[in-house]
Amino acid sequence: MNARTLQQDPHRIRETREKVLEVAIGREVRAYRRKQEITVAELSATTGISIGMLSKIENGNTSPSLTTLQSLSDALSVPLTSFFRGFEEKRAAIHTKAGEGVEMDREGTRANHQYNLLGHIGSNSSGVIVEPYLITLSDKSDVFPTFQHGGIETIYMLEGEVDYRHGDTVYSLKPGDTLFFDANAPHGPEILVALPARYLSIISYPQDA
Q1: Domain(s) of CATH 1.10.260.40: residues in the chain
Q2: What is the distance, to the nearest Å, from the Cα of residue 196 to the centroid of all Cα atoms in its chain?
Q3: Fold of 102-206
Q4: What SS3 string covers 125-145?
Q5: How far is it, in rounded angstroms, from Cα 136 to Cα 114?
Q6: pLDDT, tens digit, for every residue of 196-205?
Q7: Is the domain 3-88 a CATH 1.10.260.40 member?
Q8: Which of 3, 55, 135, 163 has the maximal Cβ count within 10 Å?
């Protein structure tokens, strides 16, 4: 048996999975405690679990027993199974190859504003919807500085140059520039300075918006 074989750990995958479970349980315990505005000391007094142990549980540094979890469940008035919710949820990822974004028209879009949706994840544990777009403007594109919608938007300039309005202020955006703003205010490209212009637009908003 060579040295390389000896260095391999057959338990590594199992241990990694257990660590993920510990972290998921800890996050749920902390989230329920904070939601009810209970301090660690108060939870310790109610359950009889030491402050140090509660800290280890919330930080995912130990595997709590079922008895411990039942005590936490009773103290926080939540089902014991709720502590495993974060571990059981599937985490989505979307890989969009170059040139494969879905071209689409967004509500309120002006003529010759090319929108390519790069991915979309609907319901997820974060409670936030994120929509990344690659936007291309040409010499035939209309300007539209009064676009409004809910959420937060981040623009990252890739190519060209535009004067972009947000509310009462106009920003000169060049490659490498970023603009992060409340999308409820009127906004949009006001002057197309150097074309073609391309930028990433990432819009985020609550799932129930």
Answers
A1: 3-88
A2: 30
A3: Jelly Rolls (2.60.120)
A4: CCCEEEEEEEEEECCCCCCCC
A5: 5
A6: 999 999 998 8
A7: yes
A8: 135
